[in-house]
Amino acid sequence: MKSYFYFLLPLLLLIVSCEDDDDPVSTEAELSIAFRGEFGEDDLAIQSATYDYPTGEQLKVLLFQYYLSDLELLPADGGDAVRLSDIELIRWMSATEGPVATKTYTVPTGDYQGIRFGLGVKPELNAQDPNNSPADGTLNENEFWNASARYVFAKIEANADMEGDGVFDTPLTYHMGSDALYTTITFTQDFSLDGSNDPQLTIISDVLAALSDGNNTFDISDADQQRVHGGNQAIASDIWNRLANQFELEVR
């Protein structure tokens, strides 16, 4: 019996050793999503770059931002969406910032067929009092109009040179937001996450395309259309519709 035990012992140790050498299968991946800002064919450069506008003027962009609600991945098997975030504020506001902002999320590995988000602040969050959120939180009083108008969903601010004299002295301010403007955007694109060779997802937003989509160009020379701040909802809707339609997703 003793000799039989000594015969089995090395075999048992070998089996245990092999089991210990096997790496556990990862069930989670760190997914980075890059948010890229552009102005036409150019990178978005806040306060520094000069951009040509289709009607002949030139612009310097001072601020571009938008809220995303319910950022989700869509599983390939049609199962429940994987929630990445309830609310995000994507913003370009400084000359020191590059055109790309990256956020990272821990998600289940597997096959996916797309990504979805709401552009703006979803109604249940839009109804919240900003005083109940931390001052440095994603939803705070700095992005809040009032109890009637609620949060500002997106902002485009620029200075324009209207006379071609090199002086950017005409401010353009487009602040948009209301439950009626909230828009769900869905991208259908197959990709897989295994925790090692994961693709880079990039969500691209183009300030120029929000103002001029090739078919309709917003008239920035009209003094009555150079400022939207809570009112002027017809103007806000015009810009918003182009803004919502111009997003692109790259998977590489």
From TrEMBL:
Domain Copper-binding protein MbnP-like positions: 29-221
Annotated InterPro entries: MbnP-like_dom
Pfam annotation, one family: MbnP
Protein name (record): Copper-binding protein MbnP-like domain-containing protein
Organism listed in the record: Neolewinella agarilytica
